[in-house]
Design a protein that fits this description.
Helix content is 28%, strand content 34%. With 271 residues, the protein is an alpha+beta fold.
Length: 271
């Protein structure tokens, strides 16, 4: 078995087995395992984030499974990390419905697997789109697209989110790149958000409600309802993904998506 980096010249050969958004992100590292005839057996993609390594994609061709390919890919990733001098915890998140991935991480030496949170996958039509009368008659409140705000107001809000919730953007342009500007919106009172939502495009078929800030549940319901209506009109074939990663998000999810089933997400961690 040999290993090759997936680079700009070869990425077209891997579009079938690696999501395109992972391939084109220059911050990700993708490694393929191949046999002696250069037949691809599997791939692993990972990235560095806040002093940890996130496994973003692990795939083995069906006919090559249960032949230690995934183990070899993970071992190779750890070897490259050691050569670079970095000692970081390694994490991977995956849906509990993926029994093969669950069994693999559970069996990999030193890997600890635990329940993380619930994930909701739904169509925009499944979200309640009734508008609340929060804005009517209240001149001090306004609903706006976040990226239509002046830069100074955007930066002020981002600083506030960092100070209050530890929300980190890093490089502004890099942070903004995967977001969907038309869907990122907030309700403001005197340039301070009552509620705010950010959407990422994960793939041509998947949008993620990746961040929400809420000081007023009615305001949050209002902007999500508006975003859902826009998604249904302009992205009708997309799924909407929401990870309820903390208690507040789980409570909000049960109110916004009352009739939707969720799937458990597990986190595998190697320290």
């Amino acid at each position: 078995m040999k290993f090759v980096y997936v680079n700009e010249e070869s990425m077209d050969d891997f579009k079938r087995i690696i999501p395109w958004e992972l391939l084109v992100d220059v911050n990700n590292i993708c490694i393929a395992a191949a046999d002696d005839t250069d037949h691809i057996l599997g791939v692993i993609c990972y990235g560095y984030d806040d002093y940890q390594v996130d496994i973003l994609w692990l795939y083995v061709e069906p006919q090559c499974r249960r032949q230690k390919v995934a183990t070899a890919l993970l071992d190779k990733m750890r070897e490259l990390m050691a050569v670079s001098g970095g000692i970081y915890p390694v994490t991977a998140r995956f849906e509990g419905s993926d029994e093969e991935l669950y069994s693999f991480f559970l069996s990999y030496e030193g890997m600890d697997v635990n329940y993380s949170h619930d994930r909701y996958v739904l169509k925009p039509k499944d979200i309640y789109k009734g508008r609340y009368p929060l804005l009517s008659g209240k001149e001090s409140l306004k609903e706006v697209r976040f990226f239509d705000l002046p830069q100074r107001v955007q930066q002020s809000i981002l600083r506030m989110l960092y100070e209050e919730e530890g929300f980190v953007t890093g490089d502004y342009e890099e942070w903004k790149r995967p977001l969907v500007p038309d869907l990122c919106r907030c309700i403001l009172r005197d340039d301070k958000p009552l509620s705010l939502i950010f959407f990422h495009r994960l793939s041509p078929k998947d949008l993620e409600l990746s961040y929400l800030y809420c000081t007023n549940p009615i305001a949050l319901g209002d902007i999500i309802a508006g975003a859902a209506a826009d998604i249904e009109e302009f992205y009708p074939d997309c799924n909407l993904i929401f990870d309820a990663v903390n208690e507040q998000a789980a409570t909000i999810a049960k109110k916004i998506f009352p009739n939707m089933e969720s799937v458990p997400v597990y986190e595998a961690e190697l320290i």
